[in-house]
């Protein structure tokens, strides 16, 4: 089984979010980049398929050279090789189109992407990719088993989960649950050394126009101070929630 | 040319999010000088959608579509959008909507923006505001394609009633086979889900152990709320992963979010930031959550929560 894991290069979850150039660009100043957490669960699950079922695992990112340290980290975790499509990730559709070319050229059976990236949260690349290449698709995937060309997956739904049967070729939008948080792998020194020697191929992009364009950003309005209620005066809280906030 | 909406129902009954997307679509239709056509699957009382601005409902009655299937539902919506020559299609932010929307967007060659929080600021160029960076910011995004798909954040627009009646037409599009088959669904039917909830009661490590969740569940029951938890609580296995809310868990956009024994890490606050009113109960007045909350009680949850339950029961009885 040939697995491709899509890796988004995203600001660390603790990053302060700011914008520059008249609020038209994300301010990367002082921002640490990491593998998108949802993708990290998928990558670890892919390593399981590699170790238990002899799958090959490649990782891919659509982005500029600045994303290479993130791909190297994925190699240090254990992926066999990395591909970087040399074009900025302008929107979900353009990224999906680039990924579709990589999947078709590489003949991948299983594509593991994250449910969503934690920067733009579009939750659209895996589904669009599946739509473009005509593969089966499972979103919000929290469990995946593959047996030959058959797959069994669990999807998180609102208020529960559903188990589905499907088959390769398959794209999943993965998240926590594919593996447990405690099973996530941290690159060790040997992995980091080996990653330096693993292939990281830069491929030039195919023609793919973006369909959307972020024109400006804004931050939420600053919040007023918290209204403290005395722990011995719960009636006051009920009153505020009813009469002032009008939420009960 | 009408605005098309996907209206979700469960066991025949429309979800609140369905009424909200119709309300939203009506606002977009007014901006663009057109009307709203809703697509519903096996729903009862389709005429209800007229009260929120739909002038037509395309009702798909198909036993084969009793269970949601993203590819099949997307195909039905795609056929409807083509029949209606719709330029804008609106879906919600439910798990199912987010599952089908990218497939639908590819099928219609449409640009898709999810997590939209307001009516378009402009319809030419078509520009919408949506949350980004896990609610730490908003982006204003132009959709440059002829057809647009909008994913509306829950509880962001609200329900807007309008005058008018919806005509109901049976709709039987051709439905493709799907390579994904649902084998079983495991869903608590007696509990409201975090996505659908107007109120969410959430517990953190301050509750000391899973055995202390009884009062959280009781408080949720009194309020008709969903229960949720912080990341450490789900990592420790005190509560199921499905309850984890925050940046890497589920987003919450409820009207009221009550955080009990949760300090308020930046990742947690990002995930719950779209909730309208936030209440924190914590022993530590320095907890970061107090900076993000609207109302706060500095106190021991084990004393405050039982009192709050008692007061709310009395309130409910008085206002019943």
Defining traits:
heterodimer, A: 248 residues, alpha/beta, Rossmann fold, two-stranded antiparallel ribbon, B: alpha/beta, 7-stranded parallel beta sheet, 8 helices
- Annotation field: number of helices of chain B: 8
Sum up the overall morphology of chain A in one term: globular
- Summarize the biggest pleated sheet of chain A: 9 strands, mixed
Q: How many strands in all of chain B?
A: 18
CATH superfamily label of chain A = HUPs
CATH fold node name of chain A: Rossmann fold
- CATH topology title of the largest domain in chain B: Rossmann fold
Helix and strand run of chain A: EEEEEHEHEHEHEEEEHEEEH
Strand order of the largest sheet of chain A: 11-10-9-12-8-1-6-7-13
Structure description:
The complex is a heterodimer of chains A (about 250) and B (about 325). With about 250 residues, chain A is α/β, with parallel strands linked by helices. Chain A has a single domain (about 1-215), classed as Rossmann fold (3-Layer(aba) Sandwich), CATH 3.40.50.620. Chain A contains 6 helices and 15 strands. A 9-stranded mixed sheet of chain A has the order 11-10-9-12-8-1-6-7-13, with helices on both faces. In chain A, helix 2 (about 70-75) packs across helix 5 (about 190-195). The longest helix of chain A has 17 residues, at about 35-55. Chain B has about 325 residues and is of the alpha/beta class. Chain B folds into 2 domains: about 5-170, 3-Layer(aba) Sandwich (Rossmann fold); about 200-320, Rossmann fold. Helices cover about 30% and strands about 25% of the residues of chain B. In chain B, the strands form 4 sheets. Chain B has a 7-stranded parallel sheet with strand order 7-11-6-1-4-5-12, sandwiched between helices. Chain B has a 5-stranded parallel sheet with strand order 15-14-16-17-18. In chain B, helix 2 (about 70-85) crosses helix 3 (about 95-105) and helix 4 (about 215-225) packs parallel to helix 8 (about 300-320). The longest helix of chain B is centred in the C-terminal third of the chain and has 19 residues, at about 300-320. The radius of gyration of chain B is 21 Å and the shape is globular. Chain B starts with a strand and ends with a helix. The model of chain B has no long low-confidence stretch (mean pLDDT about 95). Chains A and B meet through helix 3, helix 4, strand 9, strand 10 and strand 11 of A and helix 3, strand 7, strand 9, strand 10 and strand 13 of B. Chain B: GO terms for molecular function: electron transfer activity; flavin adenine dinucleotide binding. Chain B: It comes from Winogradskyella psychrotolerans RS-3. Chain B: Belongs to the ETF alpha-subunit/FixB family. Chain B: This is Electron transfer flavoprotein, alpha subunit. Chain B: It holds the Pfam family ETF. Chain A: Keywords: Electron transport, Transport.
């Amino acid at each position: 089984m040939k697995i491709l894991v899509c890796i988004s290069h995203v600001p660390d979850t603790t990053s302060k979010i700011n914008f520059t150039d008249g609020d038209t660009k994300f301010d990367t100043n002082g921002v640490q980049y990491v593998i998108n957490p949802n993708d990290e669960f998928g990558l670890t699950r892919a390593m399981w398929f590699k170790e238990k079922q002899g799958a090959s695992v490649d990782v891919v990112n659509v982005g500029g050279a600045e994303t290479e340290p993130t791909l190297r980290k994925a190699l240090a975790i254990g992926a066999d090789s990395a591909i970087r499509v040399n074009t900025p990730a302008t929107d979900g559709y353009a990224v999906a189109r680039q990924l579709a070319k990589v999947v078709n050229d590489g003949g991948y059976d299983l594509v593991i992407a994250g449910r969503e990236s934690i920067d733009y949260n579009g939750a659209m690349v895996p589904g669009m990719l599946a739509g473009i290449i005509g593969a089966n698709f499972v979103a919000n995937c929290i469990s995946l088993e593959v047996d030959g060309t058959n797959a069994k997956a669990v999807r998180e739904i609102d208020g529960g989960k559903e188990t589905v049967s499907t088959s390769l070729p398959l794209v999943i939008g993965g998240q926590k649950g594919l593996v447990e948080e405690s099973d996530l792998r941290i690159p060790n020194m040997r992995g980091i050394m080996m990653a330096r020697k693993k292939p990281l191929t830069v491929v030039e992009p195919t023609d793919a126009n973006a369909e959307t364009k972020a024109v400006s950003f804004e931050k939420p309005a600053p919040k007023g101070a918290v209204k403290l209620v005395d722990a011995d005066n719960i009636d006051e809280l009920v009153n505020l929630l009813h009469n002032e906030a009008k939420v009960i | 040319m009408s605005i098309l909406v996907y209206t979700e129902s469960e066991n025949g009954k429309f979800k609140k999010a369905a009424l909200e997307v119709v309300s939203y679509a009506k606002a977009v239709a007014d901006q663009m000088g057109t009307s709203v056509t809703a697509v519903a699957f096996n729903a009862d009382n389709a005429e209800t959608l007229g009260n929120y601005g739909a002038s037509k409902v395309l009702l798909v009655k198909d036993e084969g579509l009793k269970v949601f299937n993203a590819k099949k539902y997307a195909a039905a919506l795609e056929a409807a959008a083509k029949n209606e020559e719709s330029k804008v299609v609106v879906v919600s932010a439910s798990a199912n909507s987010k599952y089908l929307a990218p497939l639908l967007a590819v099928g219609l060659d449409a640009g898709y923006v999810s997590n939209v929080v307001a009516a378009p600021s402009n319809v030419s160029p078509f520009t919408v505001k949506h949350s980004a960076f896990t609610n730490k910011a908003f982006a204003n995004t132009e959709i440059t394609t002829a057809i647009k798909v909008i994913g509306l954040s829950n509880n962001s627009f609200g329900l807007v009633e309008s005058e008018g009646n919806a005509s109901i037409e049976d709709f039987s599009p051709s439905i493709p086979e799907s390579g994904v088959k649902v084998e079983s669904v495991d869903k608590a039917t007696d509990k409201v889900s975090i996505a659908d909830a107007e109120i969410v009661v959430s517990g953190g490590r301050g509750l000391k152990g899973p055995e202390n969740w009884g009062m959280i569940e009781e408080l949720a029951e009194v309020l008709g709320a969903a229960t949720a938890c912080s990341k450490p609580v789900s990592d420790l296995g005190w509560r199921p992963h499905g309850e984890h809310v925050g940046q890497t868990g589920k987003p919450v956009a409820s009207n009221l979010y009550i955080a009990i024994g949760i300090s308020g890490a930046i990742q947690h606050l990002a995930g719950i930031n779209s909730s309208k009113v936030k209440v924190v109960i914590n022993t530590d007045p320095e907890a970061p959550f107090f900076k993000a909350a609207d109302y706060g009680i500095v106190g021991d949850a084990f004393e405050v929560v039982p009192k709050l339950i008692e007061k709310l029961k009395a309130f409910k009885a008085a206002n019943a």
